[in-house]
Amino acid sequence: METKKFCLTERQMPTQWYNIVADMPNKPLPPLHPATKQPVTKEQMSAIFAEELIDQEMSTERFIDIPEEVQEIYKIWRPSPLVRATGLEKALGTPAKIYFKNESVSPAGSHKPNTAVPQAYYNYKQGIRHLTTETGAGQWGAAIAFAAKHFGLDVQVFMVKVSYEQKPYRRLMMNTWGAECIASPSTITASGRAALERDPDCSGSLGLAISEAVEMALQHPEDTRYCLGSVLNHVILHQTVIGQEAVAQMEMAGAEPDVVIGCFGGGSNFAGLGFPFLRRNLVEGRNIRIVAVEPSSCPKLTRGTFQYDFGDVAGFTPLLPMYTLGHDFQPSDIHAGGLRYHGAGSIVSQLLKDGLVEARSLPQTETLAAGILFAKTEGIIPAPESTHAIAAAIREALQAKEEGTPRTILFNLSGNGVIDLYAYEQYLAGALRDYVPGDDEIAKTVSQLSKII
Ligand SMILES: *Cc1c(COP(=O)(O)O)cnc(C)c1O
Known about the structure:
By secondary structure, the chain is an alpha/beta fold. It is built from 18 helices and 15 strands.
């Protein structure tokens, strides 16, 4: 009988995070202050983020120790299993071997606690007592709520009002873990009150929620900081536990991936799985393809431009060098909420520009169909975000079948979909539509960027 699951023991867990900046041929460009257009300083960032996280954000060290307190909490669900998708292989009749790294086993149901735990820890160590953040569909809010309570921190999560009302279950997860979840726009911040004054029925946006969370942090510099669940370098760094485990597990399986695939929102689960494999390309001269998969409705990697842009819609963040559709781009309301982001992290953007990683975009009807096939063959109902990675893996497997050649495929199952069943309901009812923005639509928001820098 073939082995299905490859599991590490707790003692084999990585004790360091991997920082790919050390091995990049071209380092990412620095974030700039929007007013001065000069690189932002640590002092400027320290009003918003914990100091250790800023050091990691700017670090060029190859390996950074994972604090024991963080490793201890990782053990609740780590090491996560690497699974051979034998059922999916059989259904496809492919000669390809398909493996997936199962990050859906975390308490919050996604990869996000891998960074939520160290972010909470470093804030706690600095004497911070309150965290603020924003969340769209609620995955990040749930992850930080779970993590913060381990260190006795209070959390305020500003959740976009439409999601707050339409998607109560993650809000209830946050409440269960003891976090406060506030519908944004709220009346407790100036930015929220201003939005409500303009439009009392305002249903909110991610940009507005960020503004509220950052404002709260800036108003209480003595004990409050803000935190972010994707895009930034330190977030991507923390996620490399995924790929380091997977490198060891693929060795256990006696297999070497030809292609490593991750779905792409801001880049953290893609980079988390992909970078330890990309290191083998950079350091050992291997030739593993590292593929990011984004929705066709929000195609910053495949159709965006490489430019300095704001990380948020409101224009509060430093300017980041990124592949972007422009921060004013309004992605259509697809179900993979975690992938509806206008830009990409600056490390991934540089790697894509240098041709060291690949990108492709897929329509959501194809990805949800792939998610349903995966659920039927492997049992797990995947997060709508993760179905993008599954659909790309299936395309690779079918191509191998057509060519009659072997291929070893590894993808990241970034989360499960049990709280996103509405997406499946829509698909099964035949109500799901694909939307591909026109060139003119993208050109409109991209052209705005020339005004910034
Ligand atoms: C947030 C999220 C994503 C997208 O974020 P990345 O930073 O690109 O990984 C993907 N999958 C799941 C399950 C998520 O919760």
